[in-house]
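Field reference: sequence -> structure
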Amino acid sequence: MADFKELLSDRVKETEEVIQGFLPREEGYQRRIMEAMNYSMNAGGKRLRPLLLMETCRMFGGEIREAAPFMAAMEMIHTSSLIHDDLPCMDNDQYRRGKKSTWAQFGEDFGVLAGDGLIVEAFAVAASAFDTTNHPKRAARALQILARKTGIYGMIGGQVVDVELTNQAIPKEKLDFIYRLKTGALLEASMVIGAVLGGAGEKEQERISQIALDVGIAFQIQDDILDVTSSQEVLGKPAGSDEKNGKTTYVTLEGLEAAREEVRRLSARAEALLASLPGERAFLEQIIHMLITREK
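Structure field:
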């Protein structure tokens, strides 16, 4: 475990260096929006999605240079979703990762603009891959996946259904839909883009897609569990937010023990599928295990 922690620290540092290289400079008459964007990007996230993208690419023998623009873009899109989630018209949360949320720090208007700015900048950064890539077809496919899994058939689509059903009873099939899209879509995109950039075949990409979906849903259910069982001091954001906002979660629908069992089931299936793939995957297996057993 000590070796894993040391390697994880090194890889997170590598991921952080990649992301920092693509952040906008805080200059010009519009510098205030760059400040808000960078405040959000530097608020202490786990860098989970770009890390998964990098490690999946690496597992299939790809070059990190090819993955770098997509790693930064993925974190920008994820961060934009957090900024918008915290807005008064959404979850109305004033804290994120132990700091004031973006709208609470810069104002609601700049919260909206910072989220918009990051999601657009993400695609400019991802498109910059064509300036340096040796595999333009892979980059084009990765960009297509990024767009689809961000938009109405992915993260935003999941958020739409989630917002529509706030303060309403949500049947399990719709809750599964929300989890697959709102949380699972970007995790799926991260790992599949990594596989594409690494040169994985179509069947391997399909397996990676299923692994990522299982991990994404398990990750969200674990988030539901922690919202009930943890505290703001541990989480770095308000605990009990789901109940406060009248949201149905896996815990409220199925109960705490059933939620924990579903996390175990999904993680076991993801780990079994991962074991069927070629390449050096031990580190990626440990990351997945860490994600679904996390305490914050």
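Note: The domain at 2-292 is CATH 1.10.600.10 (Farnesyl Diphosphate Synthase).
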